[in-house]
Structure formats: C-alpha cells, structure tokens
Amino acid sequence: MKNKLFVFMIDALCEFDVSYMRTLPNFGSILERGALVEEMLPVYPSFTYPCHVSIMTGCYPDRHGIPHNEMVKAGVHPVPWYTKREMVKKKFFAEYAKEAGYTTCLINWPVSAGADVDLNLPMIVPMGYRGDDPRQYYEGVSTPELLDRYFWKYGHLLRGLNKPINGSLDMFTNAVAPDIIRDYHQPDVMFVKMCDLDSIRHSLGVDTDFAREQLKKHDCELGVLMESIRRYGDFEHTNFVVMGDHGQTDVKRVLNFNRVLQEAGLQTLNADGTLGAWDAYCHSTGISGWIEARDPNDKALLDRILRALLDARESGKYDLKHVFTKEEARAQYHLDGPFSFIVECDPPVAFNFAPADPLFMDAHPGDYKTAMASHGGLPTLDHRTTFFCAGPAVKPGAAIHRACIVDEAPTMARMLGFDMPDVDGRALTELLV
Questions:
Q1: How far apart are CA 301 and CA 298, in angstroms?
Q2: What is the pTM of this model?
Q3: What are phi and psi of 299, to 5 degrees?
Q4: pLDDT tens sequence across 97-142
Q5: What is the pLDDT of residues 316-348, one digit of tens each?
Q6: Contact of 378 with 48, CB cutoff 8 Å
Q7: Is 12 within 8 Å of 245 (Cβ atoms)?
Q8: I want to staple 163 with a disulfide (CB 3.0 to 4.6 A). Which of 167, 357, 367, 413 is the partner?
Q9: Cβ contacts of residue 180 below 8 Å, gap of 6+?
C-alpha cells in the first residue's frame, strides 16, 4: 500500500503557536507522534502568494516568478492579484506527484487556477468580493466535476464575503473538503488552505485571545478532516503535515514613503490627490517597500533615487534601516520583481500605498498591508512560521530548529518516494524514516 499525503495550511501560523497547539487534541496528536521544524523561514517578501508558490515549487521567487500577491502598478489600487498557474515558471509539487501516479487535490491554494491536478478548487474569488456570483471566477480554471458536484450546495458561503476578510472562504473550504475525502475515497495527495488566522492577526494583532480561539477552531476543522480520512480513506498510510506560509509582526505606525519621495522631488501629486508625474514610486509589500524607478535603465536616475534613499536613512526621521538594490535583493534573498530598490524600517512599520495620505498614520484594521499586524518583511523578522508532520514516513520525535519553506516540497516528495529536480530547497531527511 503506497503512502498518502494530507497538508493542512494555516495562513500566518507563527512559530510560537506550537506550545498552545500541543494542548489541542488534533494538532497535539500530530505533534506528540511526529516531527517538528521549530522555525520555518518564509521567502522575501513574506507575503502569502510568493510563499505558497515557493512551498509548492521548492523554489525562491526569482525563479518561480511570483514576487507579490498583487500585480502592482504605480498609483493604482486595487490591482489584480496573481491567480493562474500559467503565471508560475516552475513545476508544482502536486504536478510531480500526479506524474508519479498519485491522485492530487488542491483546495483554496493560491496561484493554482488551471493547475494540472486531478481535483482543483483554487483560491480565485477576488479579495473583498461583494457580488452574488462567485462561481464565475471558478469557471474554466477549476475541475468542472467539483463545481457540478458541490457548488450548488456550498457556493452560497462565498456570496458577498461580507464577514471578516476571507471568513466565508474558510467555511466553503471546510464544507467541501470532507465531501471530497468521502466521495473520492481520499485523494492520495491533498492540500487544504485556511485563511482566518491571518485575518484575525491583521485586524487585532499577533498574540491575542482571539488568535488562540481561531487556532482552536482550526484544530476542530482539522479534526473533521482527520475523521473523514479515518472513515473514508486510509488513515494508517497517510502522512499528515501542518504548515504555515509566513508569520506576522505587530506594527504601531504606517509610513507613506511616497511622501518621502515627493519631498525629494521624485514624485508629484495632482490637485485631486492622485499620482502625477513620477520618477520613483513606493509599492507596499507590508513591512517593506518596493521602490520602482520610472526608467530602470536610466543610471543617472537610479543614482539620484539611491542618494535620496540613503539620505532618508541617515536622517533618522523614518526609522529606515535597510536599503537594498535590485541586485542585492536577488543575491541575498532570491527576489526579483518590478522594483529597483527595497526599503525596510526598524522597528517594523507598515508601508502605505496611497501617495496622498499623511506621512505617518497609526496602524489600523483595513488593508492587509497597513493593518495592526502585517508581514512582507525580511524572512527573519518576528515572527516566522513552523512545520510539523506525522505518519508512516516520519521519524517520531525528530526536530530541526530552522529550515526554509523551499525545503517543504522536496521533503514531502521524499515522503512519497520521488524527487523533485531543479529546486532551491532540500529534502529534510532528518525528519524522515
């Protein structure tokens, strides 16, 4: 009997959550009999979509091609998000598994629309969607059989998405997933993603009673899925993995770095507050900012922007600590994208994206980039995420202090007996029998 794999992804799961998760019945059972990576470093920027694609491909953003959640455009907000598998330059772990003879299923996985897997309901409905026809976004990029079989029954959970951000998306996911396990006798490889912990931490801060209550809810959701596998699948031969994509960090204030660029004469505003002429623009990546040059091939302009950034750092007015060139970002953090420089502050601040807003604002619930807690900063910033697993391929009691999320796909491939070529990560064989 071949082994199976079940992955339970919790957005914004932090490394310090493990001590509380040990007290919960379902997370605790996996931790008690399994293996643990105490700190799993995200990629840079530590944003949901780049991290999920790095987890699924075993590669850093400079190779898989998804550097941000959003396809940023100077002066425009909101903008489309990365959604389609064809945007990713590297092959998915789930696609390698399918080639190896495993049946594969992705539920609510980012940037997976149209992926070559057997069963797919991607993360595709736009964030903040308020309409009554969410099915339109699934058509053509999901498994038609899943839409026909389940959407009539559960699609209403996505209408409006008018609860806390992505709240109904978790309800939809947790309704569909047990039915798929039952009706398809547990796909061999199954990824299920939950979002609500991330939303709560953005709104209220990293370490709150509400976050612990949400972890308790996620434990109950995992318990339903594990019981579904006991009843309708092959529990004995399943490797269970619980993972996060990134951590989160509390922020106290929001910096509108476009105001700094305006003061340096690199940007102007129109009378109505919209972006006017610009030579440099700051895109928000949460706890870091991308500085886009109007002409990235103009060396004199790049020198001028760099001088302005270094002057801003030396002034001490903005708590600016890091200024990376595009070349440094790629060499040190394997990141490429539509920027010429990256800036980051210490203590951490959230970067605003609206050029006309004040220079400084208090952090507040709202957009995920400028909320009470955020991410998108350096991989080592508080807090990181974690990874634990149990099953027939896992060595009980094994532990690693620190690894990187690009190691997860090659490790899961080794659990199932195949390898992934041309990846940046390594199989964490210390965790495996």
A1: 5
A2: 0.97
A3: -60, -40
A4: 999 999 999 999 999 999 999 999 999 999 878 888 999 999 999 9
A5: 999 999 999 999 999 999 999 999 999 999 999
A6: no
A7: yes
A8: 167
A9: 105, 107, 119, 146, 150, 187, 190
| Parallel, antiparallel or unpaired: strands 104-107 and 189-194 | parallel
Radius of gyration of the chain (CA): 22
Closest CA to 369 of 53, 47, 125, 123: 47
- Report whether 259 contacts 280 (CB < 8 A): no
70-86 average pLDDT score:
96
Q: Which residue in 131, 128, 181, 183 sits closest to 155, CA to CA?
A: 131
Q: How confident is the model at residue 165 (pLDDT cuts 50, 70, 90)?
A: very low
Name, in order, each residue with C-beta under 8 angstroms of 23's C-beta and a sequence gap of 6 or more: none
Enter the tokens of residue 113.
């629309």
Residue 189 near residue 5, CB atoms below 8 Å? yes
**Residue 289: CB partners within 8 Å, gap ≥ 6?**
255, 257, 282, 283, 342, 343, 344, 351
User: In terms of residues, how long is the chain?
Assistant: 433
Q: Which long-range contacts (CB under 8 A, 24 or more apart) does 290-294 make?
A: 290/68, 290/72, 290/337, 290/338, 290/339, 290/341, 290/342, 291/257, 291/261, 291/339, 291/340, 291/341, 291/342, 291/343, 292/72, 292/74, 292/338, 292/339, 292/340, 293/340, 293/341
Q: Which long-range contacts (CB under 8 A, 24 or more apart) does 324-329 make?
A: 326/296, 329/44
pLDDT tens string 335-394: 999 999 999 999 999 999 899 999 999 998 878 999 999 999 999 887 899 999 999 999
